[in-house]
Amino acid sequence: MRKSDYGMILLLLILAVFIWLRDLAWMTSGDDTLPVLVALPLFVWLGTPWKFIPDGRCEFSPFELTLVVALFVLGIGINSTVLLAIGWTVLLWFWLRKRTDLGSHDSIKKLLVLPFISFPWITLDADKIGWLFRLTGAYATTALYHFFGAEVQQEGTNIIINGLPLSVEAACSGLNTLQSMLIAGTVVNYIILGDTSRYWWNLGVIITLAWIANTLRIILLSGVALIFGAEFALGGFHIWGGWAVLILMFLLCWWITSLQEAKKVV
User: Which pairing describes strands 164-167 and 152-155: parallel, antiparallel, or unpaired?
Assistant: First the structure.
């Protein structure tokens, strides 16, 4: 690596800290914050060994500079974390594309998913995604308990099961958990299928599994509230339930990708 590369790394770190700290609403708890902060170290670790070419020049074209600056200015102007995350990831790619060996570019492009989701745009910008997770989770919970003969009423994200009122609040949207699950799923996907084209379409599978895992969390918490009371379900069990979702997501991803690796699933 050259001195200019270390300068570029410093610039990227400064911009990353700016994006992370400009809105601290995503730092609700340590178990939500930590997975986001480890995504970049995971990107560096999975990409090793980094093969920098000695004669590569890190000179950005006017188009590249304009694109990155425009993404950052627009992101700040409209308060969009996702645009800032895109701008940061694009800048990272422009630099690595010029300074690393051509043979490693395919792997780097796959790993760029991690830097993109290392910023809390899902929590800060994706309110509609959270509402959709809550609503569909409420529908699934209603259908399941109705199937087993419970008396269930639903209005939006509010459910009454056998007279017990339950509300799938914003905290149950699982947005922080969704980001953690996407990071964990991407790592598993890359480790097992990173050298195949199936890596890309499995990103959609990861999102689907994240929804399934989060919906199961809502169903589980509802059942615990019915048996042991709402206070117990919303206490320490709620936190452990979130961790159980992450573990379930990890195991599901590992199982499905392992099946594909074994060519049991095309």
Answer: unpaired
Reported as a single tens digit per residue, the pLDDT across 150-169 is 888 888 878 888 888 877 76
Q: What's the number of CA atoms in the CB half-sphere (13 Å) around residue 165?
A: 4
CB count within 10 Å of CB 143 equals 11
Show Cβ contacts of residue 158 under 8 Å, excluding neighbours closer than 6 positions.
Answer: 138, 165, 166, 167, 168
- How far apart CA 178 and CA 31 sit, in angstroms, is 12
Q: What is the pLDDT of residues 72-104, one digit of tens each?
A: 999 999 999 999 999 999 999 999 998 988 889
Amino acid at 265: V
Q: What's the rounded Cα separation, in Å, for the pair 214 and 133?
A: 8
DSSP label of 50? P
β-strand partners of 52: 100
Distance CA 198, CA 196 (A): 5
58 is written with which tokens? Answer: 């890190």
**Over the stretch 164-211, which tens digit does the pLDDT of each residue have?**
887 776 555 556 667 777 888 899 889 988 888 888 888 888 888 878
- Counting residues of the chain whose pLDDT is more than 70, the rounded percentage is 87
pTM: 0.80
Residue type, 163: G
Between CA 221 and CA 213 the distance in angstroms is 12
Helices 81-99 & 62-77, crossing angle to 10 degrees? 160
Q: Output the CA torsion 214→216→218→223 (10° steps).
A: -160
